[in-house]
Amino acid sequence: xxxVEIKLFEGRSVEIKKRIAKEVxxxxxxxxxxxxxxxxxxxxxxxxxxxxxxxxxxxxxTSS
Length: 64
Known about the structure:
By secondary structure, the chain is of the alpha+beta class. It contains two helices and four strands, in the order βαβββα. The radius of gyration is 15 Å and the shape is elongated.
C-alpha cells in the first residue's frame, strides 16, 4: 500500500487537492497495478513562517 505525502504551503483549495489526489492515485494504480483503495495520499499544509531555504524564511521571500 503506497502512502504519498505531499507538503505544500497553505492556501491551496480543496478542489485543487482533490484533483491532485485523483491524478496521483491514477498514476500509481496504472504503474503498480494495484486497486485505488490501496493508495493513501496525505496533504500537509505548511505555514510559510515554518519553512526556510538558504537561511531565509519563506515568508520573507514573499514580503520583499
